[in-house]
Amino acid sequence: MLKLQIPKNRMNYLIKQIPLHFDAVVLEQGWEYYHKGRVTEVDLKGMNVQATVAGKKILSTMLNLENFAASECSCSYEGFCKHIGATFFSLYAPYGRPELLLQQLKQQIHTRKKPARGATLIQERKAAAAAQANVPLEEAMPVDWHRFFEGKFHGFSISHQHSIETFYDSALESLPGYAADWRSSTRELYMFHIVLFMMRKIEQFYQDTKSSYLSYYHENGCKIAAKNCEDKLVEFVERTNVNTSFEAEPKHWLSTMKMLGEFALQGKDSPIDWLFVYRFIWWKLTNHSAAQKEEIQRLDALLTKKDLLARKKDTLLAARAHFDIMQGDTDRAFERLGQLTHPNAKDYFLYLNYYYNDKQWNNMLVWLRWLFTSIANANHDDFRTFCQYWLDTTKHLESDSEWVQVMESLLPRSYYYYTAYLLQTKRYRQWVDLQLANRISPLSLYGMELKAIEEHDSALLLPLYHQAAERAVLEKNRASYKTAVRLLKKLHGIYKQLGQDDRWEHYVYRLADKFSRLRAFQEELKKGKWIR
């Protein structure tokens, strides 16, 4: 019994190819040869299966597992012979009963469509050449390119932590070369579809491995590859005049946007930010109102459907609001976005980034105000981005009062941004009040910050050190008492600098009296020679 077992995806590929190349009678003769045990010495070399078939003569066959049309036999028969058929059935044996498969394949061969009467010999030869070459065609539609991509990576699956990276690198290395001789407008769009294909496969890998015990590693790999794909897509769009490209390849672009709309607005849990991709591309197609109108009608029809899942409805609403924004109707967009079940501030940084780069500060302000209600629940990175956008926008306004009010409203999350701004604008008293309100010890602050305030007015630091020293004493342990003494030494220095020695003595004796029962603390005060 033959032991060679090729991968299942390659076996499926051969099964699909057999009815396209074989005559039913020849295929049955091949099965008889296999059944009589005439196939021997089957070996896999690269993507070719080589075998010896014994008939009137000893013949050699070769089956190409990647391009079946290139398979060959050493016999004199023109076309696909019974020896190749026998080799095929020997490969199928580990998967099932070849005699049953024979009947299925014969049925497919008999029902196969014949070429149209009007087809010329030249057209037939061209079609055969294209099929044998197994390459994407320049005039083909994007959906055909994706079929080709799928065929090239059929059967690829996640088996270890780095398989996502392997897929990403392999796709970028192997697929672009097929379009090297195409006209530039089609080649650019082809490259765009390579990125879309990689995104779809990454999402598929993510969904397929969610239940795996290695899901954490696969998820991280998917997210890294997804971000790389998004960067590649942005890079492509930024270097391409999309409106000009649309005019050069209108059919391809309309097909592209239809395809994008179908799989980008499903609302799935995905490592790909499809909503960003969808809106980013549409925003570049500003000159094509007819295409926009058609997409708006499609979205409106989808939104009228009942029983939409909340996540998908949110995605559709955000997509529909995008066209309101493109048409300058921000109020209508906000009205739609107000219907979202789970608003996510990050989804709207696309607009902030656009207006920021275009220096449209009034529009920035409109969006920042609208996002305020949802930013409080944002993750750390999104919150930081929001604060930075606010700060940069404030520099172009007449007053920073609204920014200050926003930062105060978002405390304590905004502490680091607010405290830095107060120092930057030399609002030292407010800075000290902020530290007191958040019970921050001077020992936890940067020395340069304290020095700046001390040079301005050292008296502002007195309540900060008072509060921190007494908080340390209240912890009631020897280490805390030593910390309190360190703070008191600095406090003593400030009083001395201010020329208020009497006030210091009054304070330290009052402090000793207040904590007179804490003998260890009393000992620390005596070591400092502040009391007797």
Automatic annotation (TrEMBL):
Key words, A-Z: Metal-binding, Zinc, Zinc-finger
Domain SWIM-type stretches: 59-92
Listed PROSITE patterns: ZF_SWIM (PS50966)
Keyword Zinc-finger among UniProt keywords: yes
Recorded superkingdom: Bacteria
InterPro entries named among the record's database cross-references: Znf_SWIM
Record bears the keyword Zinc: yes
Protein name: SWIM zinc finger family protein
Source species of the chain: Paenibacillus germinis
